[in-house]
Amino acid sequence: MDTLELMPVRVRITSILKKAIYTGEYHSGDELSLSNVAAQLGVSRTPVREAFQALEAEGLITLRMNRGAIVNQIDRKFIADIFDMRILLESEAAARAAANGMETAALLERLHDLRDHLEALNRADYESLNQDIHMAIWTAADNHKLKAYLLEMWNGPSTGLGADEAQAHYIDSTFEHIDILRFIRDGRPEAAREAMARHIARSRENILKRYPAAE
Amino acid sequence: MDTLELMPVRVRITSILKKAIYTGEYHSGDELSLSNVAAQLGVSRTPVREAFQALEAEGLITLRMNRGAIVNQIDRKFIADIFDMRILLESEAAARAAANGMETAALLERLHDLRDHLEALNRADYESLNQDIHMAIWTAADNHKLKAYLLEMWNGPSTGLGADEAQAHYIDSTFEHIDILRFIRDGRPEAAREAMARHIARSRENILKRYPAAE
DNA sequence: ATATCGTATATTGTATACAATATTCAACAG
DNA sequence: CTGTTGAATATTGTATACAATATACGATAT
């Protein structure tokens, strides 16, 4: 009947460690040992080890043979690299979605609802719709690698914006999303590509504020 | 000196299974059980399980909670998707390498050697230089995500070309490589991008011959 | 005969045990 | 005093044990 999807421990551990690295709870160069992390999280080494391998594949830590893991440098360039790739891939996805004739009516309706009640716009509503929009575009782009890479980059550093800045960001993004989806609806790949590029580039600048340039 | 012995078992298993899937030794929909694969390869379930997780991340199999793995559909579209992404990312890498001022002298010298002795061109020489060129470009592009994604896609399906076709492909590629590296050397990003796109696109067509379009 | 329930079986997910490799640091030779 | 050696220690990599979940199949009720 109701098949409640239970998250494997390894996935939970991966998510916890990823967040800990992005928030700076772990610092660049820190050595992570299986035993310590396992004990700290109250699980055995096996799922921690599997989480380490996932984190290494994502570039967050480096695994050295028989010598454990060290946290990589999560600096301004690391973040900028990710957003440069997101600009390239999200733009491509938007262009392909437009070329493929993606269904946009339902998402545009939800966007118009948000736009017409900006005073009631909260984080949860925005994030939910934001994710639905981007993932719908990835799916419509119809390329499994493109989708997988974008999904991997989706959960990165948080903006760390204050309440007012966050609100402004949500409003800007809502209008940008409307633009993007209209270009997609109208089958204009290049316009959709450029609108998406601007959208991600602005997000990039917002986040890079938290990672000052090296002197 | 055997580098395979320095590899962890899990990496070797991953490579073996990946090849088995790409060569069609395993078919779409096949159910892979940890015990069977472990017994067949003479290792325990632990490294096999870790290999399964790597293969899932790469999109080759699907892991279902408590129900084992099934081999995904490795069909024409799957391969085409990978090459579409390679066109996009290798082109971007070439453009960035050109913009960044990559060092090309040594590689161009090796290429000219090959070009001047086409009658002696063999698979090992070509593959070695081919890999060195592409990876040097990824590195010069200076974006860790771009490099990681291209590396993941590097070992895909083999062309399965006959000896004559392979020889022709090596020769074509050698001249294309020379063009690409000259554009990079001369700091012409857009020319490098387009030359690389053509190079990968031709490779794509070569490989897709082995995956006939569905009727 | 069909559908439902419960037990047996098989397989995965996690924990633990064991083996192999790397690091530490003190004893010792030069 | 400096540098090397090697046992003791610590940590990973792999194997195995145990627990939890899913599947198969037969008994039973309708």
The assembly state of the depicted protein chains is homodimer
Q: How many structural domains does the protein architecture of chain A include?
A: 2
Strand fraction of chain A equals: under 5%
Mean pLDDT of chain A, nearest integer? 92
Class of secondary structure makeup of chain A: mainly alpha
Specify which chain pair forms the largest interface: A-B, 26 and 25 residues
From the N-terminal CA to the C-terminal CA of chain A, the straight-line distance is 59 Å
**Helix content range of chain A:** 55-70%
Radius of gyration of chain A over all CA atoms, rounded: 19 Å
Strand adjacency order, main sheet of chain A: 1-3-2
The topology string of helices and strands of chain A comes to HEHHEEHHHHHH
CATH superfamily of the largest domain in chain A: GntR ligand-binding domain-like
Keywords:
homodimer; 215 residues; mainly alpha; Four Helix Bundle (Hemerythrin (Met), subunit A); 9 helices; 67% helix; elongated; DNA-binding
Task: Give a written overview of the molecule.
By secondary structure, chain A is mainly α. The first copy, chain A, has 2 domains: 9-71, Arc Repressor Mutant, subunit A (Orthogonal Bundle); 76-208, GntR ligand-binding domain-like (Four Helix Bundle (Hemerythrin (Met), subunit A)), CATH 1.20.120. The first copy, chain A, is 67% helix and 5% strand. The first copy, chain A, has helices at residues 9-22, 34-41, 45-57, 76-100, 105-116, 123-141, 144-154, 163-185, 189-208; strands at residues 31-32, 61-64, 68-71. In chain A, strands 1-3-2 form a 3-stranded antiparallel β-sheet. In chain A, a hairpin with a 3-residue loop joins strand 2 (61-64) and strand 3 (68-71). The N and C termini of chain A lie far apart (59 Å). In chain A, 30% of the residues are buried. The model of chain A has no long low-confidence stretch (mean pLDDT 92). Chain A binds chain B through residues 5-6, 8, 46, 49-50, 53-54, 57, 59, 65, 78, 81-82, 84-85, 88-89, 92, 143-146, 148-149, 153, and chain B through 6, 8, 46, 49-50, 53-54, 57, 59, 65, 78, 81-82, 84-85, 88-89, 92, 143-146, 148-149, 153. The structure holds a DNA duplex (30 and 30 nucleotides).
